[in-house]
Amino acid sequence: MIKKIAALALLFVTACSDGDGSFAPSFFREAGAVIDTDSFGEAVNNNIGIHNGERSYVLSLATRFSEEVNSTINFEFDSAKIDGQARTVLNEQANWIRQFPEVRFRVYGHTDSVGSAGYNQSLGLRRARAAVNYLVSQGVERSRLEAVVSLGKTQPLIVTQGRERKNRRTVTEVTGFVSRHPTVLDGKYGQIIYRDYVGSGVPVTGLSGLTSDGDEG
Fold first, then answer.
1. 93 pLDDT tier (thresholds 50, 70, 90)
2. pTM for this one?
3. What residue ranges do the domains of the chain occupy?
4. CA–CA separation, 156 and 160 (whole Å)
């Protein structure tokens, strides 16, 4: 019985520790002493985004991007060089991105599992920066490409400890709208979609031989 009480006491003290040597439980402190800084305010931002339509249109654009363009490029082992196949994909990405000057993007860098975590994080960052630099060279404003985040080897597509090309990649994603853009400030997110819809129309030629009702004359 005494051992059980001691174990419970140890568990209580461990749970109340702040990691800085203090063991005072949060309910003995003033209000607001413990704040969840990781997600504080996110609920409000999400609510605003849903009501003004931004979140739904960002999701729509993100879905279109992933369906219409290959969002991933791959790299050789221990390399951040953009090869010919990667350039072809990035050219397609750049063409798509240039159609939406109101939209921001983020590029994530990944590696395979060979090597240390620290080295792979650095390598993933170099790969992401190489992809960003290439997109910029194709006419995409650097200000619309968010600060690059490297995920290193933490999110493999194929779980293996060996070399795997599919894991050595960068992924481009839609993240939101550019702040202070006129159409976004007015909340007219639908116009962004509609403008592209109209612009995607292809003029029909060679109809001079048709009558007004569509039958051949």
1. very high
2. 0.62
3. 69-194
4. 8
